[in-house]
Design brief:
The chain is an all-alpha fold. The protein has 9 helices and no strands. About 25% of the residues are buried. This is TetR family transcriptional regulator.
Amino acid sequence: MARPKAPILNAQRIRATALALVDRVGLEGFSMRKLAHELDVQAASLYSHYRTKEDLLADIADEIMSGVDVSGFDTGDWRHGLTVWARSYRSALAAHPNLVPFIAAGPGRRTEALRRADAVHGGLIAAGWPARHATMIGASTKYLVVGAATNSFARGFDDDVRVYRDRYPNLSQAHRLSEHAAAIDHESFELALSAFLDGLTQLYASLVPGGHAQPPGSPEEGE
């Protein structure tokens, strides 16, 4: 029996090809018609696996969110849990920045996103945070992570020294930022995260009698 000329179309192959296409052309440039062309099939073939483009993107978003780690809350240390969650969340989003607007719009009914939101909220509540503050902490962490994953501060500057040399003396070294962008963006995120957690630690102590950021024997945050 002759082997098929093209790989068999299945949901996993559709998702992988769609994600690669979004990574390349962005959400605005993505369509089921273009995806069908990439897969060398008729667009109608895709709809037997996914009813709409949004359903497909939701499944892709779930796959990306499955790599976000919320296990840090299992220790009972809310600060460690937030640290692990925020770092892995940023890494997952930064790997596919073109999909961030879709993911950041909200969990909706996406299973993986809701599971992680439930774990984060539950971990904060279990640590003694009032429900209202737990909600705001989850939202604030998301704002921090999404901003860090979407934009690069360092890459936003031109690498031509002449742009800054005479008119902007305080930015005389700005042309060098792009060559150190990865380190600057990483360290800037860590600085913002640390300052955010320090502020929450003070708030926690004022809200929760005997509240501590790290229970005895809990793991250090580390790098």
